[in-house]
Amino acid sequence: MANSPKPTARRLSWDVIRVVAVLSVVLGHITHQSKIMHPELAGYPFTVPVQFGAAILLVVSAYFACATLRKDKPGRWLFKKVSRVLPGYLIAVLITYVTMRIAAAAFSGQRLHSGLSGFLFDPAIGSPTTDAPWYLPNGLDLYANIFMIQGWSTDFNYLDGSYWTLPVQIMAFTAAALLFPRKWRTDKTMVALIWAMLAVPLLIRFVIFTPTNTPSWAVTAIFGLGLHRVHAFAIGIAIYLWTKNRLKTWHLGLLLASAVVAQDLHMFPLHYATAIDPQRLPSVAGFGVMLLAMCAAAKGPDWTWLRPLARPIKWLAGISFGLYLVHQELGYMLARALRDLGATPWERLVLVLAAAIVAGWLLTVLVERPAYRLLTREQKAAPLALPHPSPPVDDLVEGHAKTASPISVGGPS
């Protein structure tokens, strides 16, 4: 095996990007999305309505995919990526499913059957005693989430709304591993690919079809293939090329502006013909500001002015994938239980946030990290038989990219 370059000091700036992005997702789901899904959970002391964190995590993921892909055989690289994200995800799915079964029946005034099969898969006993019963997941939902095919049928339900990023990222990683060794991979073709990734999904959603007149099969394909988030991967690739001086700054500026427009259109498709309103502005502006911060983190000096906070920032960045996986639906159920116990809005907010962080840490140290170490022990051959890349045309990535902690998706890097 080829010797890896010695890593330089880990850069704090990338950890800050990750933490800000994942906390925006977590706080947005706790304070804003929860009252949409479950109106009885309204009343938090403040609301975070921004919707950019998951997309930024995908941009980060794409950037680090570019930074690390050429260091290993594509098959082994892909295997490591999947090994990083899949074990934690599967455990989170199982925990969420069982907890949802118990909580949904209890909140709706019902009870579950005795026996393992009845407990896990049968409908609840009794009629709901509330006007807004909680959804009781079934075996089909469990299988769809395990195999990450939730977006391919209206019969499937996401056990947790955050899970949409996992199939999108794995598809993107697979495409990267397959495309990387090809001889066509020049700077010109890469830039053309980036523009195509930005433009083609928009053409499909707003020209070939419209948000109000899209056939069901097209909706399934768009969301199943993650076309509404391809722009995030495109701009991550663009930022990486820019850091290697393979893309002019003015050209990156055009791509950044285009990505912000694409994010706005895909996030708020029914309002694409109207001016930006106050409800959309925080999400659009937040996405743009975070892209600029990523550029500063990628090519500028490290953010040493945040060194006093380095320890908690790095710790949160290290568990951010686990935190992302367990905060939403499990958080809703905890918030409902706390409300039923008489907790105040501030108490609910603090306890749900603290519980999400603890659960994310436990998932990281008990599942994600040991499973990754076990699965990626030295093998005599690559787990996947993809061709080895042709001689690299770019420099080795700096050590900070090698040592930065991975995250998913929204995502793992």
UniProtKB/TrEMBL annotation:
GO biological process: one example: polysaccharide biosynthetic process
Domain Acyltransferase: residue ranges: 13-364
GO cellular component, as recorded: membrane
Tagged with keyword Ribosomal protein: no
Keyword check for Acyltransferase: yes
Transmembrane region(s): 12-30, 50-69, 89-107, 161-180, 192-211, 217-242, 309-326, 346-367
PANTHER family to which the protein is assigned, alphabetical: ACETYLTRANSFERASE (PTHR23028), BLR2367 PROTEIN (PTHR23028:SF131)
Protein name according to UniProt: Peptidoglycan/LPS O-acetylase OafA/YrhL, contains acyltransferase and SGNH-hydrolase domains
Organism, scientific name: Amycolatopsis xylanica
